[in-house]
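User: My collaborator sent over this chain with a note saying "see what the structure looks like." That's all I know about it. Can you take a look?
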Amino acid sequence: MLILGIESASVQVGCAVGGHEGVLASFRSSRGRRHAETLVPAIDFVLRQARVEPEELGAIAVDIGPGLFTGLRVGVATAKAMAQALRLPMIGVASLDLLAFRVRYSGRLIVAALDARRDELFYAFYRQVPGGVQRVSEYQLGSPGDLVSELEATRDECLVVGDGAYRYSEQLTGRGGIELGETSLAHPSAAALVELAHPRAMREEFVPVWDLKPLYLRRSDAELQFEHRESA
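Assistant: Without extra context I'll predict from the sequence alone. Here is the result:
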């Protein structure tokens, strides 16, 4: 089964296509944050590079967040539109799961941390299991101080990956036993999305288009501003 993966939860936007043979083609860009203008041409490019027609796809996988509101909304809306047009099932994968999956061979406690702006982070903890990683915490939104406090409560050696790790590196590395992942691991990967989604597709763990919802963890700036005006 061929799967198209769409990822847009951070400042990076990307897509990939692949199946049982692995990832056939992928694209990513983090320049200009023009997710809406970049994504559709990128999907067309990736399909052409893989020599795959849209009608040959068996499922659409999409990063459901948590992540930056605008980019996440663009990716989910594009994925839903394609799934409806092609009558394909969908698979949703969390952005933090994608970050952790790329360092699945680490024996340390894995911390996936994405920059959430407003001096906050989206983060979750993972441990290695046969064939991948298992999440051992809830998806959380908190300050760098909140994350540091949780790390101080454990004696485990930790590997922190994601762009949040680099933005708040001084606070995080103040505690011993913490290593930051490589800069190439700063953003969720569309290729990893395809790899994670494929076995789920084989098990037919699909989500209907109308049931797939983004994982925001907090309200958008527009909603907060509207509430502030209403209260005023």
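A starting point for your reply to your collaborator: Residues 69-86 form the longest helix (18 residues).
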